Structures are given as C-alpha cells and as structure tokens.
Amino acid sequence: MAIARDSIRLFDKILSLDSPRLLDRATFITITALFSLMLISNFGLYGCDDIDTVVRPSPSARFEYWALIDGRYLLFAALRFARLIGLDFLRDYPVFALIYAVSFATFVVAVVDYLTRDIEVSRAERAIISLLFAALLMTNGFHGELIAWKNCFPFMLLIYFIMAACLVILKSERYHRWHYPGLAALFLALNCIYQPATMALFWLSMAWALVTYIGAGEAERRIYLRLMRHVAAVAALVVVAGLGYIAITRVVRALGGVATGRPFDFADGHILLLNLARHAKHVIGLVDPSGSIYGPYAGGPVVFLAAILLIIILREALTRSWFQLLFVSALLGTILVCSQNLENILLSRYWPSGRSSFYAGLLLPVLWLAAWLAIRPKMERTLCLVALLAIGLQTMTFAKLTAERFELQRRDYALAKDIGDAIRSDAALAGATGIRLPEHVFPGYYRGLTLPVYDASASVFDFGFPQVPLITFVTGLDLARTGTASCPPSEQPGRVRVQREGADIVVCF
Questions:
Q1: What's the pTM?
Q2: Nearest Cα to 488, choosing from 446, 438, 445, 422?
Q3: Pairing verdict, β 497-501 and 504-508
Q4: Which secondary structure element, helix H or strand E, spans residue 481, and what is its range?
Q5: Which end is more exposed in the chain, N or C (fewer Cβ atoms within 10 Å of the end residue's Cβ)?
Q6: What pLDDT is recorded for position 457?
Q7: What's the whole-number mean pLDDT along residues 3-10?
C-alpha cells in the first residue's frame, strides 16, 4: 500500500545525501552516538540494585542469582557467558553500555521501519522520524531508570536486539510457515529475559494500526479488518509466549529446585480488582498535566503538546466519517491503557514503574507521526516546532533529574559515612555484628530535589535491602541487617545517633 505525494517534502530539504545507504548509516550512527552520550552522562551513578551487587565479590554472580529468582533464564545464561569471557556487568559496564547503545539504535530504526511499512516516506523523512523517535524515547522519564541503573544494561540490550528482529518479521508483507513459530520462539525468549518486552510489541502493533489507518489513502480506508487481524495475531503471540513461559518456570522449579518468585506471584480475585483500580489511576496519571505521578517526563508542557497532536488526529478522523472517528478513538484509548504495563495487574503486588512500561516513551512520537500523516503536506513546519519543543523540554528535564540524582547519591554517601564514623567512634559498639536502620530517611532529606516518582529518584535509605550494602561500600563495615529501627522524632533531623542493643547496633537519624 502506498500513498501518492504531490509536493516536495520539507524533510527532503532538511536532509538529503547522494547515497541512500550512507543516509541510513549516518542515521544509525547518530542515534548510537546520542544514546551513548546519555549513558555517559550517568556514568558513576548507581541505583539500589547496583549498590546491592557492587559490594559482592562478583557482582555478576549476584545478578545471576536474582535473574534466576525473577525467572529471567536467558539473562542468567547471558550473564554467565559474559563472566566466562571475563566481563562483569557492573565492573565493566562501559562495555555493556556501548553494546546497549547499538541495540537501542537497532530497535529505534526497526520501530520506524515497522510503523511506516505501508506508508510511502522518503529516506530523508525516515531518517528525521528515526532521530525524532530516538530523542523522545531516550529523554522520556520512563527510560530514566534504564539509563541510570547499570543492572538494566544487560537485559535491555538483549531485548532491544530481539524486539528489532520481531519487528523485522512482523513487517514482512508475506508470511511463511516458519514466521509464526519463529515469532512465538522470539516472544518466549523475550519473556525469559524481561517480560514487559512482549507487551511492548503488542503496544507497537496497535501503534502501527493507528499510523497505517491515519495514513491510508482515499481508496484504502476500509482496511480496519486487516489491521485488527494483525493486532490480534500479535496478541495471540503474547498469550502463547506467556503460557509457554509459565510452563518453563514450572519445569525449572520442578527439575532445578529454583525458587522462582515473581512468575508464581499471581493476584487472587480480590487483589485483581484492586489492581484494576490502581492501573486506572496510573493511566490517568500518564496524562496528568501536574506531573504528580509521572513528573520525570516533563509534566504539563509535554501533555499540552500531546493534546495538540491528539486534536489533529481526531479532527482528521472526523472529516472522514463518524465510524472512523470511533475506530481511531478506540485505538488511541487502548494504546493509552496499555501504556501502563497490563502484566502488573496480574501480580499480587502491583508495582508500576518506568522500567516495566519503558515503551510508553514512544507515545508522543507515535502521536506526532500520526498527526504528520493526517495533515501532510500542510503544517509541517508547525509539527517540526512541536517536535523540537518536546525534545527540548524532555532533554532539559532529563538533565535536571540527572543532576538531582547525583546530588541525592552524594547525600546518601555522606549519610553512610556519618553512620560509619559514629559507629567507629563509639567503643561500646565494638564486636557488634548486626545493624538496624530506620525504614525511611528523615524529613527534609529531599529538600531542593524533585520528590521521588520512580525508584531511580529515591534515596537508597528509602529501601530496606540496599541500606547496609551502601554502608559497606562507603565505609568498609561488614554488618548484617537484622531489622528496622524504631526511632522517636528528633529535634535535629539528620544527626546520626547510635546505641547498642545486644549484638545489634541501632541507628537513628
């Protein structure tokens, strides 16, 4: 299916190279370089899981353990292989970062090729669209933890390569017998690395249906049945791969005795209903202009730009027919609902995070692409301005939050050092083997910083498991966490106080 164009595109004027392959390669290299710069800006920044592993004799061995517990069997195999050739994911994270940048660029190019497979666009237009998608995805708050936390590098670089392969197969005009079994195997592999990846592919199939329907020509508008067959096929692959993954976890537990936790932690009927309400709240939060839930993605200004794009899309659908308006609205509503990972609803502990819904960072560029297709060749300069504003807003917000995360890490390290100094200065604490710490930081700890929205923006001392590893990492003290300290309100918040109770050190601040 192709769309006739009867005017010279603005994008062709902006970017044109003699060799088509040279343009494709330049686009790929540019995306790789840009994402590398994003990763480099966070070098030296550790997340909670990173702190828990960095103090171990072998961080990769520790991560392998957690990969098994979380049912990420192919991630476990990849980490084990890397360790066999002398690579540790945390100590050698710059190496993984380079591969991660290449996989990110591969994924973005595959996404744009897939979304525009039935739309006639020039190479220059495709290059600009790819750069736009890359810039908006990498600076989106949903991607923040995947850039800041080093333990995310291995599984993200793996799933990006495999997701790109899936999109290449889904893009094919003609399906062969091996396509669906091959896709099912790739979907299953994704589940054995990071389960949200299959939901991302389903989300992208709906985005493709939206883009293709909006971009359809006059003679091609009655194509919704073909679009829905494609979306249904991808949904079936997600279900089949999910059932296959559950079967694998049962086999691994039975044969290997691995106490896999998360894949078995399903919600009962009562919890499921509560999760539906929680999911609705977080979906609404996605378009909350105040940014009260999703602050890292720039809040109100970006929501305003998205609203402009949405109005353009719906207006174009309305000019065609009421049915097409309803069809497009249904697609947009489903895309929005699925922008918060539906898999969270099935678990007994509803845990929305940027990591598990990383693909939501593509929502704005998909809206932009659909709006451009709806009105081209009109208002192209206006849409370019909208894109530049969105990239600028998200980039500035990303830079601000990165600086704040480094400041928060400095405060965590300073608090850990104060705790270590207080313990070493009190002779009565000599020989103690355990330590108890408050469950949360003291009031005013986040003063001057954006309040934490996701895990990457929260203090290590607001989590239980990495508190002691951080103290060990900073001070060298080897203590075991034995519980939570109950501390009365202090007139001097932030002043470390220590006392001994049996073999434990009780810390208050």
A1: 0.88
A2: 438
A3: antiparallel
A4: strand 480-484
A5: N
A6: 66
A7: 46
